[in-house]
Amino acid sequence: MKIMTISSVTLFTICLLISFCDAKVLKDFCVADYTAPQHAGGYSCKSPEKVTVDDFVYSGLATPGNTSNLIKASFPNAFSYQFPGVNGLGVTLSRGDLAPGGIIPVHSHPGVTEIILVVKGSITAGFVSTANNVYIKTLEEGDIFAVPQGLIHFGVNTGPSQALVFASFSDENPGVQVTDLALFGNNFPTDLVSKTTFLDPAVIKKLKAVFGGSG
Ligand SMILES: *[C@@H]1O[C@H](CO)[C@@H](O)[C@H](O)[C@H]1NC(C)=O
């Protein structure tokens, strides 16, 4: 009886593995077809005979972004809605240009892990764990930094020159939740923000003016 149970479990597992292997073999990629309707799972796949190598090449991260803004930084992305070849692959990249003093505001990517590579300059970066421990390090050229899945993280260009970083993500279209925008960039009522964060209402009003919020 016990042997029967084990062998049926084994058989089930093998079937499962075979069906996974089959799926991989049958479908190498799903290049996004921006002209077809989107469905719950994302983009429709471009018909394979219409796919070319150019679907897998994206040049949008080749040039520096404009850092004349509040955060003195710019983050062009190569997500699935810009870069069709990455659709369905579960990975992508962003570029970050940070002027001296430029910031990566406190934010998180729900369910997504990130790795940051410092190509030029130096960045003080960190994340906060769910145990509420803060992990901060000043990263130099060539350093890479792992941000575990979904944790809030941040960065500042603490060096004297322009910094260039690239960030990779475990999703081709990572969501982003910027803490300042979640609290001050919408119509979240000031009294409720104040009650639920213990921040002074005057400070909240001031930040709502900065981040485009109301109420
Ligand atoms: C950068 O952005 C600022 C503010 O929007 C703008 O005034 C400036 O012309 C832009 N610079 C370039 C090179 O696009």
From TrEMBL:
Pfam family, one: Cupin_1
Signal sequence coordinates: 1-23
Compartment annotation: Secreted, Extracellular space, Apoplast
Binding site for oxalate: H109, E114
Keyword vocabulary terms for this entry: Apoplast, Disulfide bond, Glycoprotein, Manganese, Metal-binding, Receptor, Secreted, Signal
This protein's record includes keyword Secreted: yes
Positions of disulphide bridges: C30-C45
Superkingdom of origin organism: Eukaryota
Principal cellular location given in the protein's record: secreted
Domain Cupin type-1: 59-205
One term under GO cellular component: apoplast
Keyword Plastid attached: no
Molecular function GO labels: manganese ion binding
Residues involved in Mn(2+) binding: H107, H109, E114, H153
Family note: Belongs to the germin family.
Name assigned to this protein: Germin-like protein
Native organism: Ziziphus jujuba
